[in-house]
Write a structure and sequence with these properties.
Chain lengths: ~300, ~210
């Protein structure tokens, strides 16, 4: 059971970081208490993991065959990658860190499922694009609805506030459904059964959200709050739809990538000059580096432990 | 439903605030007309006292509104917008008290040649204020005629500026004591501030409305 510690560490780190993508805007703008947001995130992450988390487990588990030792190493490598990227304040993708680490194991074993890997890489490219397109569609759809309703300020605010909470809950559900595979994908079928794997992953993500997501929520929220309430609502909804879509497909993807794609779409809609291209380049390089660092950590830990 | 109920309470408070402000404007109108007609007498002082009372009452409601707003009644952006608008609205009410106090402390005697002009100016300022009130009420409702009200406010402000220039010219063309000329010019400038504050409120209303168009 000691080998599960690295998985739990990874789940906790993911919960602390990625739950910010769902309620960051609502919490940092004081529309919702942190405690309420954390409890809602924790609850819906577990529900999402239980309801639809098994599909991702199959995909990730199928990338390569893992022993208990290699599962422990890959989780530890991914957790260290996530932590390192967080220290450098770079937007992280836990999915990429995990896949990079699993690939490291696969390379050492000479057993990499290239077909599965292609599917994962296509989805990585597709995630920000999906977030971008979903935002464009939802923006115009909601805009039409809002304009036709001609709501007064008070009703409009109530509508947006409720919408942000619902979209956040949906985002947490999608996070659990999609990202639980990142945590326990490597243990499924070895140390844990599928049901145990989704429960373990869901709980560790929920614990991360409950205990350590406050600061990240504020960080993400402050960068997103520059958007108006309506745009925030659209981006959170679009991000949730995108992540949920990939949960159904069965590929673990990054919620950060989805939200970055969604925010970029708002930038395009509001005017290209509003986009911070330096930050965008940094994010792009972080996405390329994450699986590479995950792989390198995995090789180093394998060397040290064997 | 909980948020809707909370917002309904807030809206009621805002309407209460407008009611008190309207009463204040009405007292100001009566007091100024009385002053122009009868000068600085005990009735005028009583009206000043009533005006100050209403200003305090308006301030008290405004504080309650502020507290409600910061108890998460609205989204933060709307909260800031609404507070900023109400503060500008409050500047109009404060300005009326400032005018009445100015008249009371300077013990001014308004010359007959500008009495009608001052009455006209006050009338225009009150009409301008009415448009601000209508614009705010429309802004908090369906926002159908906000920009029409704003245009009328700007129109009144421009007309008031023209009248201000004309009155000051009249003061300096006539045989009035030099010291009185300065005091009267100050008075006209202060009265003109009423429409300036209305224009500030109109700018704020325009900004909020543009934001809400999405």
């Amino acid at each position: 059971m000691f080998r599960l510690v690295s998985g739990f560490f990874l789940g906790w780190a993911l919960g602390a970081n990625d739950s910010a993508n769902t309620f960051g805007t609502a919490v940092s703008s004081r529309m919702l208490r942190f405690s309420t947001a954390a409890v809602l995130t924790a609850f819906f992450v577990i529900v999402g993991a239980f309801m639809q988390g098994h599909e991702g487990l199959k995909t990730l588990g199928g990338l390569t065959a893992l022993t208990l030792q290699s599962a422990f190493i890959s989780s530890l490598a991914a957790a260290c990658t996530v932590t390192l990227m967080t220290i450098f304040k770079l937007p992280i993708s836990t999915s990429q860190a995990v896949v990079g680490a699993i690939l490291g194991i696969g390379m050492l074993q000479g057993n990499v499922n290239t077909a599965g890997l292609t599917k994962v890489i296509i989805c990585w490219i597709g995630t920000p694009i999906g977030g971008f397109l979903a935002t464009l569609i939802l923006y115009y759809l909601f805009l039409h609805v809002f304009r036709s309703m001609r709501l007064d300020i008070f009703t409009c605010d109530t509508f947006l506030r409720t919408g942000l909470i619902v979209a956040g809950c949906y985002g947490a559900y999608a996070l659990g459904a999609n990202n639980v595979a990142n945590i326990t994908g490597v243990y499924a079928g070895t140390l844990l059964s599928t049901k145990q794997a989704v429960l373990f992953g869901g709980l560790s993500i929920a614990l991360g959200a409950l205990t350590f997501s406050r600061n990240v929520m504020f960080t993400v929220g402050k960068s997103i709050v520059k958007l108006d309430a309506f745009s925030s609502f659209v981006t959170v909804t679009a991000h949730s739809v995108t992540v949920h879509f990939y949960a159904i497909v069965g590929v673990p993807v990054s919620t950060s990538q989805a939200i970055v794609g969604a925010v970029l779409a708002i930038g395009v809609l509001k005017g290209i000059q509003t986009i911070n291209f330096i930050k965008l380049t940094e994010i792009f390089f972080a996405w390329i580096l994450t699986p590479v660092i995950g792989l390198l950590f995995c090789l180093i830990f394998s060397f040290l432990l064997n | 439903m909980f948020f809707l109920r909370r917002n309904k309470i807030l809206l009621e408070k805002i309407h209460d605030y407008f009611e008190v402000c309207n009463d204040g404007m009405s007292v100001f109108n009566k007091a100024l007309h009385h002053f122009v007609q009868a000068g600085n007498d005990s009735d005028f002082e009583a009206q000043i006292a009533r005006s100050l009372e209403l200003e305090s009452a308006a301030d008290a409601i405004l504080h309650k509104i502020e507290k409600s707003l910061y108890r998460k009644s609205l989204l933060p952006e709307s909260r800031e917008d609404l507070m900023s608008l109400l503060e500008r609205y409050d500047d109009i009410i404060d300005c009326t008290n400032h005018i009445l106090r100015y008249l009371n402390t300077r013990n001014i005697s308004v010359p007959g040649i500008i009495k009608d002009d001052i009455r006209e100016m006050v009338k225009m300022s009150l009409l301008c204020y009415d448009q601000v009130r209508c614009a705010v009420e429309d802004l908090l409702g369906k926002r159908k005629n906000v920009m029409t009200f704003v245009r009328t406010i700007n129109d009144y402000e421009a007309r008031c500026d023209d009248l201000q220039a004309a009155i000051i010219k009249k003061i300096f063309l006539n045989d009035i004591d030099k010291c009185d000329k300065i005091i009267l010019t100050d008075l006209i400038n202060i009265i003109t501030k009423l429409t300036d504050h209305c224009e500030d409120a109109a700018d704020c209303i325009t900004l909020i409305n543009v934001k809400r168009v999405v």
